UniProtKB/TrEMBL annotation:
GO terms for biological process: homogentisate catabolic process; L-phenylalanine catabolic process; L-tyrosine catabolic process. Ca(2+) binds at residues 117, 190, 192, 222. Gene3D superfamilies: Fumarylacetoacetase, N-terminal domain (2.30.30.230), Fumarylacetoacetase-like, C-terminal domain (3.90.850.10). It is an enzyme of class 3 (hydrolase). Substrate binds at residues 119, 133, 229, 233, 338. This is fumarylacetoacetase. The active site is at residue 124. Residues 20-109 form the Fumarylacetoacetase N-terminal domain.
Length: 412
């Protein structure tokens, strides 16, 4: 399929969305929200063409119904859309149902049922652990045996382009006797990939079964208030520090589109328990980057890394999630955890890039950052690079806005 071309000319050049991709999203061009797939710089209105499936699957502006229909439907729909967009004989019937991306608003691509975020990147865990516990105790005792995670708020998940308001919260410095209520001064990003669960489960599933349950992947920014987190996280972990927003890209890149880019997880110094062992490659070779643009100024790429750096894959995370008998649902979202590489310029958070604020990061504009300032726009991009094409995710962006004015009853 690597040499296949589309009759949509913009899909055959420098694009995230060639015929080999066909990511799933929801758009509104002024005629109502509906499901579509990206092809070049256009969006195909899926419900309006001869898609070969039950029309009810596309009756709402979300991909949940299609996901629930199962893997055979996913494959059949992808095959049919590929024909419609590559066969010149289909052009006359299909072309009227293409909408320019530039004239459409991109919306949440699916209804998020529940959201779980993991801490599964070894480089990130080593960096953060070294900062706070020293190199000898950087990794918790359980880290090499178990994918560590916490249950976040599905209501916090927003689509790219949604402004992110700096949160208020309890903070306490080392020299303060008691906490105070203040806007976060150490607001941060976390570069992640999100796995979208497309099939439900009851009881425990294997890593292979978990892989089969995943519909696709999105870029994800797990915005984090580090000063709020430092005060609240013991003993039960993150809570309000992670509840401000979780931004995802508007396109779900399907697992099928990523098949050619599978890679193994890294070598392990400790053997995993049998239920977590992978039957084959479960990560993907996806190049990632983070850009930071101060208000009204040009962007600086502050980090470049790759999803293959993860220690635990999404199928392992999902399998572990079910190990207690926890039921998974269509539309569940799993955050990978921060994706950091082994060198400074590949670190996926400002906490790491500025080493806790002690080594400010210098931008191309001449400004410095330890943590995010109001007006900063963060953009995550990612793509798997194929033979003459790339499977891209589009952009995952959010602009940091000032904290809200406190109501009188919350003031001292």
């Amino acid at each position: 399929m690597s040499g296949l071309k589309s009759w949509v000319s913009s899909a055959n050049g420098d694009t995230d969305f060639p015929i080999q991709n066909l990511p799933c999203g929801v758009f509104d061009d002024g005629n109502g929200a509906r499901v579509g797939v990206a092809i070049g710089d256009m969006i195909l209105d899926v419900a309006a063409v001869d898609h070969g499936q039950d029309a009810g699957l596309f009756s709402e502006p979300a991909w949940n119904a299609v996901m629930a229909a199962g893997r055979d439907i996913w494959a059949a729909l992808r095959a049919r859309l590929t024909v419609l967009l590559s066969d010149e004989a289909q052009r006359k019937a299909v072309e009227p149902h293409l909408v320019p991306q530039a004239s459409a608003q991109l919306l949440m691509p699916f209804r998020v049922t529940e959201y779980t975020d993991f801490y599964a990147g070894r480089n990130h865990a080593l960096n953060v652990g070294t900062m706070f516990r020293g190199a000898e105790n950087a990794l918790p005792a359980n880290w090499l045996s178990i994918p560590i995670g916490y249950n976040g708020r599905a209501s916090s998940v927003v689509v790219s382009g949604t402004p992110v308001i700096r949160p208020w919260g309890q903070v306490k410095s080392a020299d303060e006797a008691l906490p105070r209520f203040a806007p976060s001064a150490r607001f941060d990003l976390e570069l992640e990939l999100g796995a979208v669960v497309g099939q439900s489960s009851e009881g425990m599933v294997s890593v292979q079964q978990a892989d089969d349950m995943i519909f696709g992947y999105v870029l994800l920014n797990d915005w984090s208030a580090r000063d709020i987190q430092a005060w609240e996280y013991q003993p039960l972990g993150p809570f309000q520090s992670k509840a401000t927003a979780t931004t995802i890209s508007p396109w779900i890149v399907t697992r099928a589109a990523l098949e050619a880019f599978r890679v193994d997880t890294p070598e392990r110094e400790r053997e995993l328990l049998p239920y977590l062992r992978e039957p084959g490659p479960m990560l993907y070779d996806i190049a990632l980057e983070v850009g930071l643009a101060p208000e009204g100024k040009r962007e600086t790429v502050i980090a470049r890394t790759n999803y293959r750096e993860m220690y635990y894959s999404a199928p392992q995370q999902l399998a572990h999630h079910t190990s207690s008998g926890c039921a998974m649902r269509v539309g569940d979202l799993l955050g990978s955890g921060t994706i950091s590489g082994p060198v400074r310029e590949s670190r996926g958070s400002l906490l790491e890039l500025s080493w806790g604020g002690s080594e400010p990061l210098r931008l191309d504009t001449g400004e410095e950052r330890c943590f995010l300032e109001n007006g900063d726009t963060l953009t995550i991009r990612g793509a798997a690079l194929g033979d003459g094409y790339r499977i891209g995710f589009g952009a995952c962006s959010g602009k940091v806005m000032p904290s809200i004015e406190l109501p009188d009853w919350a003031k001292s």
